[in-house]
Amino acid sequence: MENNDVMDLLDSLFTMVSEAWGVPLGNDKCIIEREKALKLISEIKAALPTSISEAKRLVAARDEFIGNAKREAEAMRKSAEEKARMLVDEQEITRVARAKSSEMISAAETKTAELRKMAADYVDDLMRQTEESLIASLDSIKTTRSSFRGSRAQRRPAPSNPKEL
User: Fold this and answer.
1) Which of 1, 113, 119, 152 has a beta carbon 3.0–4.6 Å from 47's, enabling a disulfide?
2) Residue 123: pLDDT band by 50, 70, 90 thresholds?
3) Phi, psi dihedral angles at 23 (to 5 degrees)
4) Residues 6+ away with beta carbon under 8 Å from 78
5) Are 49 and 1 in contact (CB under 8 A)?
């Protein structure tokens, strides 16, 4: 029997008592059919254990559902907190990585500028040395050539024909 059947039986018993004939001089007393009332009460008693066990089962199922929902909600909360913690950690790692990257790029740019200046100074110095060496060599060649011309002119008589030169 279902819970509604018990309610129907109780409604029938209520109706029977409320519609029963009153006892003379007994304001709160009435006359009902004993067999009919006992039958209704027996049916109610028979239906109640089923209804009570069904209600207990429903309460237990509800409690289990609520417990599962609480566990699931707690797991979801913990998961969300962990994800939030990871995101914060990732953001912090990203921030630190970006700061470190900026420092490294800045240091590399500074070092590159220094190396370029040093390379330019080195090349300029090499070119100056080469220029000085070439000037010295050119001066030496001019001196040697001049000396050679002078010594050649002294050894040989001057040609009478300009074509002999």
Assistant:
1) 1
2) very high
3) -90, 135
4) none
5) no
Q: Which residue in the block uniquely carries the two structure tokens 């060649």?
A: 141
Residue 116, token pair as written in the block: 């370029």
8 Å CB contact between 16 and 36: yes
Per-residue pLDDT, averaged over 42-70, amounts to 85
Q: Give Cα separations from 45 to 1, 9, 38, 121, 163 (angstroms).
A: 11, 10, 10, 111, 157
Query: Is the residue at 154 inside a domain?
Result: no
Q: Does the pLDDT value for residue 83 go beyond 60? A: yes
Range of the domain at 129: 3-147
**Residue 161 forms part of a structural domain:** no
Within a domain: residue 30?
A: yes
Q: Tell me how many domains the chain contains.
A: 1
Residue 47: CB atoms within 10 Å: 20
Give 1-46 pLDDT, tens digit per residue: 455 688 888 888 888 888 888 878 777 888 888 898 898 888 888 8
The greatest distance separating any two alpha carbons of the chain, rounded to the nearest whole angstrom, comes to 187
Rounded to whole angstroms, the Cα distance separating 17 from 101 reads 91
In this model, does residue 76 exceed pLDDT 90? yes
CA 100 – CA 94 distance, rounded (Å): 10
